[in-house]
Amino acid sequence: MEQKIFLSAFCKGKDWRKDVADVVEKIRTGLGSKSCDLTVFFVSGAYKNFDRETCTRYLSDELKSQVLVGCNASGIITNEKEIEMEPGISALSMHLPEVKLYPFYISPEDINSLSGGNNLINLLDIYPTDRPRFLCLADSASCDVSRLLHGFNEGYKGLPVIGGLASGRMMNVENWLSLGGAVYTEGAVGVAMVGNIEFEVIVSQGCRPIGEPFVITKAEDNVLFELAGRPALQVTQTVLEALTPKDRTLSEQALFVGIVMDEKRANFKRGDFLVRNIVGFDPATGALMIGEALKVGQTIQFQLRDADTSEEDLTKLLQKLQDSRSSLPQGGILVSCCGRGRGLYGKADHDVKMIQAMKGPLPLTGFFASGEIGPVGTKNYIHGYTSSLVIMR
Questions:
Q1: pLDDT tens, residue by residue, 60-101
Q2: Whether residue 169 sits in one domain with residue 36
Q3: Do 141 and 45 fall into the same domain?
Q4: Is residue 206 within 8 Å of 198, Cβ to Cβ?
Q5: Predicted confidence band of residue 54 (pLDDT cuts 50, 70, 90)
Q6: Does residue 290 contact residue 276 with C-beta atoms inside 8 Å?
Q7: What does the alpha-carbon distance between residue 168 and residue 178 come to, in Å, rounded to a whole number?
Q8: Which of 248, 285, 316, 372 is 20 to 30 A from 14 (CA-CA)?
């Protein structure tokens, strides 16, 4: 059986034309006579006088990749570097025998008209029985990502969607997405992979639970009114008062809510929660506003995030992955929140160096996103402050 090839390349300079040409040359040299079936690429929004149409057409024409998909970002990720708020381009090209690729573009109108999984299946014309794996990149301003992922979760149950939201806007440039050399400034682009391809995914949310679990007794949409029959804000204050002074200080900037994923468990621990932001509160009603629709009967537990907890969480998740010394060729895509990197750890390259130390050497590309797409449990979600890693074999 012919083996897959995963080949990464990056350049970091001031001249985007030279950097793109260098990346193309590295990939063509590495692949030799093998076909370039899929290329995933990310371009920093920090380049001066950047021409996105020329760049993407050049990549498409020169690589002759069957499918080319990418976006712009505030930072790019390479084999061992996280390049934040500086120019750079990173790519992963793949030779994928026995894998069928189905590229797709979904407009905002398409997304807004989705009423469930069957609509998305008809739109993509990809059968769930083929067990597709999805890569999806989107624009946050024009794409209702939650609605789109609901369609994936209903139509393609238990199948992973990984990716993220373009973050060029953080560099004061317009977000853009690319598919096959074409450029889009709204909606979502992606590719489905069918056949001899494995995805192993981790989503590191980097939080630890505090206090005790509480059952939601009153909620409407994303507004949390009561926990265990008491006003939610009152319960929050009680939990915070019991913290150590250090954690109480941390809670002023890094307090979240964790929604239990599997209510059948007897005890809940880190990793059992879907972590969501607290986006506001109302002192008059004692309500909290949460970044997720809530239901009466769900269990939640408050969470804290810091650098040590994030590192520990990523370490434990990496330890659960298959042995990277497998004979199978592999490649990775890492989508990390713009709020991680130097801002969280106080130093560059933290997550990618940890990944390579524990699971490398791994050809890798990635970017810093305005929201990360990845599964927790059996469903796909849009996240914040996470690192979402897929290893493909």
A1: 999 999 999 999 999 999 999 999 999 999 999 999 999 999
A2: yes
A3: yes
A4: no
A5: very high
A6: yes
A7: 13
A8: 372
Using pLDDT thresholds of 50, 70 and 90, give the confidence band for residue 323.
low
User: Do 113 and 156 meet the contact criterion of CB atoms below 8 Å apart?
Assistant: no
Can you read off the two tokens belonging to residue 350? 């933290």
How confident is the model over 96-107, as a mean pLDDT?
98
Helix axes 350-359 and 307-320, enclosed angle (nearest 10): 30
Structure confidence at residue 230 (pLDDT): 97
Q: Which of 305, 325, 345 is the last residue of a domain?
A: 305
The count of other CB atoms within 10 Å of the CB of residue 105 is 15
Output the pLDDT for position 324.
Answer: 53
Check whether 328 has a pLDDT greater than 90: no
pLDDT for residue 1 is more than 80: no
Phi, psi of 116, deg, nearest 5: 165, -175
- Considering the chain, what is the average pLDDT of its residues? 95
CB 206 within 8 A of CB 254: no
What is the token pair recorded at 129?
């029985």
List the domain range (segments joined by +) for residue 285. 207-305
29: buried, middle or exposed (CB in 10 Å: 19+, 13-18, 0-12)? Answer: exposed
Could you tell me if 39 and 56 lie in one domain?
A: yes
In this structure, the chain runs to a length of 393
What tokens does 170 get? 């953080």
Min mean pLDDT across 108-112, 147-151, 328-332 is at: 328-332
CA distance 367 to 187: 18
pLDDT at 135 over 70: yes
